[in-house]
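Why should sequence recovery work at all? Because a backbone constrains its sequence more than one might expect. Tight turns favour small or flexible residues, buried strands favour hydrophobic ones, and helices have their own preferences. The token representation captures these environments compactly. In the example below, the structure is given first.
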């Protein structure tokens, strides 16, 4: 059994409740990601107190733009590297291309270090593990542990939409490497539309020694907002079927008539549930909110500050704003009533006919 060197302090004592999502600087969700956009958002986010960024080598060109902005002297002198957390991912290269081999993991981490202009990464996730075999994911984790020993990576994790596969991998990592995953990332399942992460995942992750869970896409990849899902230069990639989109549109129309914002309500709901789950200092649920513009940043942080008194520091037991929760509960309930049968609807991941052994789509047998 492989042994690893002592790891740093628990990530639950370091990671803040709210994290800036770097997917907003990608072609997937933004038509023209550029350095001016990233520079403005990053500067304003840090001025507001944000100190953690989550991105991926798959979110082209997020890493390159973030690295350029973070390394510019006007920024780096004010915010040196040890004052913020950088998280990225390995393994997913394109929508239908994956490489979890140890050689690729090593290459990808070193490339991310170069792109982000840093000597170390705080967290590296294996990206979308449902598209590969469990053995491939375990080998990738082993490669990341080597890089932990080299001082290039501090904490290791895995990301997936599939809660069951994240739980299975967390158990296998504990058995094979005699240490837990530090963190897992799940998306769109601690939201107003789907709360399966809370009901089906958190207790299991905690029992397996995972100290942090990142809840990404609290707006269900932009579904829970007015104006429809975000569409970048790569087209509409959102997995929501027409019926769910229509229900979300009806919910947005309803809350707009009430003078409220569906996006703000959805974000406050996710942060409230994450706070409830972060009941002790050894287990933290953090919310990753993707931001593409200054307007989105201001709107999101306004919603965050309305419900969480200390949203940008690591867990310290600060209370939730219960008055805001009481005001939001009737609207949350109404939104879920409007969603109706689409409440807790889950997407198919990986897509039907994806073969994890061959890591490609295969033709169905007739």
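From this structural description, the recovered sequence reads:
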């Amino acid at each position: 059994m492989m042994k690893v060197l002592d790891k740093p302090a628990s990530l639950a004592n370091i990671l803040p409740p709210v994290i800036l999502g770097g997917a907003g600087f990608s072609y997937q969700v933004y038509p023209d990601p550029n350095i001016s956009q990233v520079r403005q958002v990053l500067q304003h986010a840090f001025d507001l107190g944000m100190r953690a960024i989550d991105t991926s080598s798959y979110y082209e060109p997020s890493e390159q733009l973030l690295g350029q902005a973070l390394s510019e002297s006007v920024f780096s002198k004010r915010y040196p590297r040890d004052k913020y957390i950088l998280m990225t991912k390995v393994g997913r290269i394109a929508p239908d291309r994956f490489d979890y081999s140890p050689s690729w993991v090593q290459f990808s981490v070193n490339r991310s270090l170069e792109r982000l202009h840093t000597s170390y990464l705080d967290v590296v996730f294996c990206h979308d593990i449902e598209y590969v075999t469990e053995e491939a994911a375990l080998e990738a984790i082993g490669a990341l542990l080597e890089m932990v020993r080299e001082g290039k990576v501090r904490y290791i994790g895995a990301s997936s939409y599939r809660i069951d596969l994240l739980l299975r991998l967390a158990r296998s990592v504990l058995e094979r490497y005699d240490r837990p995953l530090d963190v897992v990332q799940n998306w769109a399942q601690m939201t107003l539309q789907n709360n399966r992460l809370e009901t089906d995942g958190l207790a299991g992750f905690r029992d397996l020694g995972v100290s942090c869970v990142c809840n990404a896409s609290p707006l269900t990849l932009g579904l829970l907002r007015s104006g429809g899902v975000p569409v970048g230069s790569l087209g509409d990639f959102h997995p929501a079927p027409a019926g769910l989109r229509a229900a979300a549109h009806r919910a947005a129309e309803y809350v707009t008539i009430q003078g409220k914002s569906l996006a703000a309500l959805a974000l406050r709901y996710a942060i409230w549930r994450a706070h409830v789950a972060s009941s002790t200092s050894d287990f933290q649920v953090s919310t990753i909110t993707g931001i593409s513009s200054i307007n989105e940043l201001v709107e999101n942080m306004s919603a965050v500050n309305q419900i969480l008194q200390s949203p940008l520091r690591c867990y310290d037991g600060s209370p939730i704003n219960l008055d805001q929760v009481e005001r939001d509960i009737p609207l949350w309930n109404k939104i879920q009533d409007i969603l109706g049968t689409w409440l807790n609807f889950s997407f198919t991941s990986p897509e039907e006919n994806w073969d994890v052994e061959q890591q490609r789509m295969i033709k169905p047998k007739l």
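A few observations help interpret the result. The domain at 11-241+262-321 is CATH 3.20.20.100 (TIM Barrel).
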